[in-house]
Design brief:
Elements (H helix, E strand, L loop, with lengths): L6 H20 L9 H9 L5 H4 L8
Helix pairs in contact: 1-2
Amino acid sequence: MKRNMGKTDRIVRGVIGIAGVALGFYFQTWWGLFALIPLVTAAIGFCPLYVPFKISTIGKK
C-alpha cells in the first residue's frame, strides 16, 4: 500500500470523521459508524477508491 493522500486531504477527512462520529453519538444512531471510514483512511494515508482512478493528492517532490 503506497500512500496516496496528501496532508490537506488527511486533515479534511479527519475533521469530517470526527464530526460524523460526534453526530452519531449525539443523535444515537448507527450512521456515526460510517464516519470511521474517513478516520481510518486519514490515519493510514491511503484511500482505496483513489487507486482505480490513479488519483494522488500528494504534492510533487
